[in-house]
């Protein structure tokens, strides 16, 4: 269940198999909802593309890449929400 969720809401449940070498990234919505000066959000498609650019790297490198991408996107705009990243590499 997502943090900040509504009890009893019919959230979609999905199961998937993970294998050695897979990378799992969990993040709060504050990143995809990060605004730039034009009022556009970073959005889920940009999140996927950013992850694809860096997924083979270490968790620390992945998080650093996302932080830089967010700073570049916001270009000095103050974030309106917190951003949290958790990266898991499957061994």
SSE blueprint:
Elements lengths: L22 E5 L1 H4 L10 H12 L4 H16 L10 E5 L2
Antiparallel strand pairs: 1-2
Task: Describe what you observe in this structure.
The protein has helices spanning 29-32, 43-54, 59-74; strands at 23-27, 85-89. It is an alpha+beta fold. It has one domain (23-89).
Could you describe the largest sheet, including whether it forms a barrel?
A: 2 strands, antiparallel
What structural class results from the helix and strand content? alpha+beta
Shape: globular
Secondary-structure element series: EHHHE
What fraction strand? 5-15%
Q: Which strand order do you get reading across the main beta sheet?
A: 1-2
Total beta-strand segments:
2
Rg, alpha carbons: 15 Å
- For the residues shown, what is the average pLDDT? 90
Number of helical segments with 4 or more residues? 3
What's the short story on this structure?
The chain is an alpha+beta fold. It has helices at 29-32, 43-54, 59-74; strands spanning 23-27, 85-89.
List its traits.
91 residues; alpha+beta; two-stranded antiparallel sheet; 3 helices; 2 strands; globular
